[in-house]
Amino acid sequence: MTSFDEILAWLNPDRDVAGTIYVQLRQDLTKIFTWNRCPDPDGLTDEVFDRVAKKVHEVRKTYVGDPKLYFYGVARNLIKEIPKKIKTQIPLQGAEPASDPRREAEQENAHMREDCLRLCLQKLSKEKRELIVAYYARDKQAKIDHRIEMAQRLGISVETLRVKAFRIRATLEQCLERCIDRMA
Amino acid sequence: MNEEPVSDALLRQFLLGQVDDQERQRLESMFVTGGLSRERVIAAEQHLLDDFLDDSLTPADRERFLAQYGETPAEQRKLRIAKSIQDWAASGAAVTAAGAAAGSRWSRLRARFRLQPVFMIPIAAVIVLAIVFAVIALRSRWEQRNRYLAMEQELARLNTPSMLRDVPSTMPPLTLRPGAVRSAEAETELTPPANAQFVELHLVWTQKERYPSYHATIRKIDEEQRYTVRDLQLDNSNTIQFRVPEIALPDGGVTVTVVCVLPAVIFG
What we know:
The complex is a heterodimer of chains A (184) and B (268).
Chain A (H helix, E strand, L loop, with lengths): L2 H9 L3 H21 L5 H22 L4 H22 L12 H7 L2 H14 L2 H11 L3 H15 L3 H26 L1
Helix pairs in contact in A: 1-2, 1-3, 2-3, 2-4, 3-4, 6-9
Chain B lengths: L7 H8 L5 H13 L4 H16 L5 H11 L3 H18 L1 H9 L3 H12 L4 H39 L2 H6 L7 E3 L21 E7 L8 E8 L5 E7 L6 E7 L8 E8 L7
Parallel strand pairs in B: 1-2
Antiparallel strand pairs in B: 2-5, 3-4, 3-6
Helix pairs in contact in B: 1-3
């Protein structure tokens, strides 16, 4: 049994359920690294799984409780290690300077974003397109009232409406990022 | 410890980085194990973003928000994109555009061109060339049509009864007899003098029947275009006088066709 199989077996005896938990856990840990302002959250998540993989054979025999908390514990240790790592880093001569956000902002000008937005909106279903446009329509207080009305009309809570808007926006963001990168 | 409920205000503080380390770990543990639903966290983050975009965060919260969600270039880009979605949706045009996906074909084309600038110059060159060729072709057809109309007018003028009667030909008329297409006879050759404005043809009518009028058509042998003169008359010597401008007789030969016009029959 590989260490990956052992991780899955530890997360859940049903391999399909374990797979789902594994994917979700990866996303959660990445989110936690992001909240903690860690550089390269995806890379750190890989590191968590690498570390767990090395010990899983032994740990799962003795560990009591939700295994996800063990992963989280490893992630916390990594978060604590990060400042030390940064201090011990030696600047490389001739290394590329960090990207300048202002320059990037200039490169992807508003016009490009608008063109890409139009393209990406077309890729959404009519229902999603109307929802996201309606969600962001209006201004300030009118917008708040409008969202309450929208939620009532859809038979959902405002919170659920926000989640829906978040998901559509996330899809749009991904599409826009790809589109802007191609145009730049 | 994980049993304590998480209020919206606490969740907001947590997302803005305003909780101590112990509380942070408690909330993060709950997040990983599902005690704090992802949906709730997502909704709270979206709410924060909405407030940021609406400029309704306090200056301190705005700073905290930017520290948490707008520090890296990637995060800044996400914020710019979110802002552009909001701005676009907030503009009146967006509402109509959302239904019909906006006058999108043009912008899609524009965007596509911009996506691949390397194709811009060749495409533009092809378009310009196509326009130039279309203009040349139209102009050529227009000139051809004008020439045709001018020729028809000239033929009609030369063959009016008064012209045929009053204006004599400057060269002897050329008599043309009917010929079969596959005839072995030599073709009639005509060499008009340099100063001749027109050539007078005498078309011999060999049939016994006489008709009220005749139409003559002249056509260059290898061309489709033909000119017709109507209402020509047969004279007593069984010939039809037919005048043709010199310019209508190019090298290579022409075919002249005569058609009789039957009288109208009135029933009753």
